[in-house]
Every structure is written in C-alpha cells, then in structure tokens.
Design a protein that fits this description.
GMP Synthetase, Chain A, domain 3, 8-stranded mixed β-sheet, 7-stranded mixed β-sheet, 25 strands, 33% helix
C-alpha cells in the first residue's frame, strides 16, 4: 500500500491511537514522554523513559529474578549508564553483549542507548573462537556477558572492560563486576542525551558461513511501528512473552516494540514449551513471540496437554526467523485459532511481507503481502521484473533497510530495492510464496530444483516430523538429491515410503536419490537448519 507523505503520517497516527500508544494521559506524564522522545529519538532510551513517564508503576519485565517496573527500569538504566561511563564506555564506543533473554540484556541495551554507545549482539550458540573472532573484528571495547559463557570468553575483550550480565550458580564465578554491582554504585539521575544515537549490529544467521555484522541506526520516527501495526494488531499495556532470542532481529524487534508500547515483557533464559504454556496462563499473555520450531515444540506436547492451560488471552502468535511449514501453520491455527502472524524478512531488510491469519487460512504456505510503506518486487537474473505468478529474486524497499555490513559490502540493489537472497513468486491474490535461497538451487540432470519444495512435501507425510534436502556432487547428474528425515516419535517410515510420497506429489526428478534417517537436524539458535553441516558431513570438507 503506497501513501502520500501527509496521508502516511496520518495513517501512522491513526494506528498508534488504535494500538493505545496515544490516548488519554495526565498532561504532566504526556509532556515527560514527549520530552523523552524529543531528547533521545526513536531509541530504546526514549522508549524506556517515555514508558516510565506514562506508566511508572506498571510492570516492565518479568523474568526468573522477579519483576521490574518501568520507573525502576528507568532509574536502574540511568545508574548503569553512569557507571559504564565511569568505566570509560562513552558515545560511539562498541559494546558487545553475549546474554540470554533476561533483564540484563534489556538493561544493558537501554543503558548503552542512553550513552550513545554502539551495540553488538553476539549469538549465544557461538563457540569460543568464533566469539573472539567477532569481538576482535568488530573492535568491541567493552564486553558484557552471562557468567555461563565465561569459559567461552578466552581472549575476547581481554584488556578491555568486561562485565557480567547474569550471575547464576557457577562454581567458579567470573571475577569481573556484574551489572547489579554497577547499578548499585551508579548515579540514578537522568543521563544527558548523546550528540549521536548509538547503532545496533545484529549478526546474520550464518547458516552458510561466517556470520556478518549487519549495522542499523535508529529509525527517523514512528512510521516503521505504524507499518508493523498495519498487519499485526499489537497493543499497548498488554503482556508479551518474547521467547525468540533477543540477540536475533526477531526477538530484538519485539523487545523494542514491547518497550515502546509500554507492555510487560516476559522473559526466560531458555525456551521450554511447557513453561511457555504456563507463562501464557499465569501472566495472561497477549502476544507470544517465537520462531517456528518453538511453535512446533509447543504443539508436540499434544492438544490434550495444551488444553489443560488457559490460552484464551492469546491474540497474537508472532512468527519469523525461518520458514513456516504448511502443516505447522495449519496445526497452529487449528489449536490456537486465528492468531498466527508470519513475518518474512531478513536481518538486512527487516521485513518484506507479513501473513495474517486470513492469509494463512486461504494459502497456508504464503508469507503474505507487504505491509504499508514496503515495496517488494521480483527480478530475473538480468534485472528485469518478472510477471505475476513467475519465479524471481526477491527485492525489498522500506524504511528499515540496513546500512551495510560492518566489514564492508552490502546486498545486491536494483532501483533502490535490496535483495533478500531468496526466490519466490506472487499468486493471483498478491500473496507471496518463498521457494528458498537463490543459492540453494540444485541443478540435477539439467533440472532446477529448490529443496524447500521437496521439504514442504515431506512434512505433509504424517510420519515425518522434520526434513532437509541437499545436493550431493554426482558425476552423471551433476548433483543428486539427498533427504535427511526425522520420523515422528514412535512412527515407522522407510526409504521407499519417503520416495513414493515425493513421487506422488512432485515431478520425478525431485525424488531424492538418497534418504538418511536421523534423530534431529542441526539447527542454529533461531531454528534454521544448518545445511552446511549436513553438506560437510557428506563431502568431508
């Protein structure tokens, strides 16, 4: 949907009012919130200060340590910001954060935002050498980490400033001061806004190689929030359970959305499906933020177990981070009702399309339509736009495109639109379908094959829980297809069953030549299958 600039601003205003962000408020509180936005811009610092002004006694965070109100969060992050500054962390400094989902992640982010420091979010699934390499590459002068990762730190940040975000029950706790120590010694008075907003660097998923740092500054206003609200009915002052990793763009964006909307954020350091159900019932969760494999694990508990919990408060199950399989979308809608919203995007482009429950009911495999203010076009290899219904490379334009990789370079661009690296097509109703990564295409016997189509077919088999397909070098065909299959618990399925199922549903050249049954597929922390691991196993590279 394209809007003229003035109409666009009014549409944003209307959606913010509908979401409850703008509404009746005591004048003094409204003034304080407005001043926070004027002083800090559209940043975590502003969201925290504005929420503290409007709803000081409301719960901001619920985690394993208890709860924190917005007023407490504002004062604690003021103190933390002053203490970090006393340790030499100032505007423009690069701060690396390696932490799970808890208050320390939020407080470190907000405090550094108040200072104008740049944040680098490290993946909790990294090994020690990978952590050290990224910290060195990104020139992080300060490292904040959970104590469980102390053994991974090694030389990372050595000689710089290191602080502990979460102190658990480690037998040999780190010697560095904790964030709680810094908060206790810090000055809780308001922080002078920096001249420049800090930047956020989120690492790409790294499913095919070394993750890159994708850098993005603060948005110029609230229009991006209006764009999301045009598709997903988020609301202020509700409860959001953010189960997706906060270091990933999906979990991070919803942490900021909850803070901006003055909603209560429920966080757990590790995702457990049964605990997620208990949280929904106990805290009357309105919005559950997950990646598809998390929804799969909840549904695998069984409908009987799910029905033991009151999930009637759920209005939104927000999904992203990896492909949403058709069977999973159907099961989710059947069990929880029309509350599933599936966002397709990437770390680099933020979002491209969003599927509403109506879209998923009509076409369960779709990623939906572009939200307000977003342009999505499909181009062929020569850079020409393809007709509706034909496959093409996906290019996106919106207000949240990243600024480039921290190591240099960026994504392909055509007419101001940025490549996602995927291929897909639009149906007659304007809904997009993503077929897979452009570099995932396998040429077998002269035929172009996209693994995602075969995987989607396999997941429709009632005895198959998970599947991944790769191409293996073959002297006769150039490449042959191999499927890795995880059977459902207690199910018996054979290689012939797998091949016959694909043969009945797809072209013969898409039938895997080889089938291997495995207990689980290698995945990263956001649920994406690490096909490079499978490929390395086959080729020995």
């Amino acid at each position: 949907m394209r809007l003229e600039p003035v109409a666009y601003k009014f549409d944003t205003l209307r959606r913010l009012v509908e979401a409850g962000l703008l509404g009746p408020t005591m004048p003094d509180r409204l003034l304080k919130a407005g001043i926070a936005l004027w002083r800090f811009g559209a940043t975590p610092a502003a969201a925290c200060a504005a929420s503290a002004a409007r709803h000081p006694d409301a719960r901001a965070i619920i985690d394993e340590r208890g709860q924190v109100t917005f007023a407490e969060l504002h004062l604690r992050t003021n103190a933390l910001a002053h203490a970090l500054a006393d340790h030499g962390v100032n505007e423009g400094e690069n701060v690396a954060l390696l932490a799970r989902n808890h208050r320390g992640f939020v407080e470190a982010t907000v405090a550094c935002s108040k200072l104008g420091a740049n944040m680098l979010y490290l993946n909790t699934g990294f090994a020690g050498p990978q952590t050290a390499d990224v910290v060195a590459r990104e020139q992080a002068a300060c490292l904040i980490y959970d104590d469980e990762f102390a053994g991974l730190m090694g030389e990372a940040g050595d000689g710089g400033r290191r602080f502990v975000a979460w102190v658990g029950d480690a037998e040999d706790p780190p010697s560095e001061p904790s964030l709680e120590d810094l908060i206790a010694m810090g000055d809780a008075s308001d922080v002078v806004p920096p001249a420049q907003h800090g930047r956020q660097t989120i690492l790409t998923s790294g499913t095919t190689g070394t993750p890159k740092g994708a850098s993005r500054g603060a948005p110029g206003g609230l229009d991006p929030l209006g764009a999301l609200l045009s598709k997903i009915p988020l609301h202020s002052r509700v409860v959001t359970a953010d189960a997706a990793p906060l270091f990933h763009s999906w979990g991070y964006s919803h942490f900021l959305l909850a803070l901006t909307l003055s909603s209560t954020l429920v966080l757990r350091r590790r995702f457990e499906p049964a605990a997620a159900l208990r949280d929904i019932e106990t805290h009357q969760v309105d919005t559950l933020v997950v990646v598809p494999v998390m929804l799969q694990r909840i549904l695998d508990l069984g409908e009987e177990e799910i029905r033991r919990h009151d999930t009637s408060s759920l209005r939104v199950i927000a999904l992203s981070g990896s492909a949403l399989p058709v069977p999973l979308a159907k099961r989710g809608l059947d069990v929880f009702g029309d509350v599933l919203y599936n966002l397709y995007g990437s770390t680099e482009v933020a979002w491209a399309t969003i599927a509403t429950p109506e879209d998923l009911r009509a076409a369960p495999g779709t990623t939906g339509k572009p939200p307000r203010g977003t342009i999505v076009k499909l181009f062929d290899e020569d850079g020409h736009e393809v007709p509706q219904g034909e496959r093409g490379r996906i290019f996106v334009g919106n207000e949240m495109l990243f600024d480039g990789y921290t190591g240099g370079g960026g994504k392909d661009m055509i007419d101001g639109l940025m490549a996602t690296g995927d291929v897909g097509y639009f149906d007659a109703a304007g809904r997009m379908f993503v077929e897979g990564r452009s570099d995932d295409m396998i040429v077998s016997g002269g035929e172009n094959v996209f693994p995602a189509e075969i995987e989607e077919s396999l997941l429709k088999h009632d005895k198959i829980a998970e599947a991944a397909v790769i191409g293996i070098p073959d002297e006769q065909f150039g490449a042959r297809l191999k499927a890795f299959v995880v059977p459902r618990s207690g199910a018996s399925v054979t290689e012939a069953d797998v091949k016959d199922h694909v043969k009945r549903n797809l072209a013969r050249y898409k039938v895997p030549r080889d089938v291997e049954f495995v207990d689980e597929l290698p995945r990263n922390t956001t649920g994406k299958v690490l096909k490079r691991v499978l490929q390395e196993r086959e080729t020995g590279d």
